[in-house]
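dumping the sequnces here before i forget
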Amino acid sequence: MMVGVLVITHGNLGYELIRSAELIKGRLGSILAISVDPTKGVEELKKEITAGIKKVDKGKGVLIMTDLFGGTPSNLSLSFLKEGKLEVVTGVNLPMLLKLPDIREEKDLTDLAYTIKDYGRRNISLAGEILNKKVDSK
Amino acid sequence: MDVSLVRVDNRLIHGQILEAWIPFIKASCIVVADDDVATDFFRESVIKMAVPSDIEVVVNSVEEFSKNHSYNEKNGGKTIVLFCDVRDALKAYKFGFRFEKLNIGNVHSEEGRKCCTPTVYLCESDIEGLQFLIDSGVNVEFRCVPGDKPVDFRDLIEEHMLP
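..and the predicted 3d for all of it:
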């Protein structure tokens, strides 16, 4: 059994992130993308999210990943927050999605959410900075 | 405060405001004039967390904001004022908040919607409200983000809504 995941983003970013992650890692399972575009009303989107949560929830809770804190996908997701049942992580990136399958079964929702947040942050790097450090340490 | 943008957006603070309008206007203050947010601590906190910390956020009920005239002193930083619907913008106008231009961003009227642009659906009373503002000398434009071409409400009315 694993934590369900929804990727909710501006436009099709979520679909494409999942597609790219599956190219690298294979099928992710219990994951769905919801795209927020300006032509959809708030109530319509909330219904879509409610249906999405139901679909991916296998009893271990749901992690919602959104693209931008303060954006509509996040704002809507926050209204579904429920401790132990639903967590929201913002700033979704590819490394986060790739990490998911490795830890989704062993960790509970809260632990998973913290781990994914830290992992996403750690995987942003400035290549020049890394190279300079290597040169310096020689 | 120096009011540079008055906008109707049923999403209030969201991506388009944070990433497009704030940098475009170089705003240093955002006013959310909304009765629901003013009484909802959670939503107010989320809004304050979402806006970059160097920008002041003021959350007020529509009435409280409109009756406080600090926006008339054009000496402070550039300010964006947000209402969630046409009704609130009109209410503020009637309470004494005067503006020359009203920007319509995202509106999804739930009842009796009439599609004006892909992101704006107005009901009869919205259209009447906007008509009142225009008759009072307010320019009403439809524009989601600064880079879009503004559409004048009067042109739209002529195109779509005349019987």
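Chain A has a mean pLDDT of 94.
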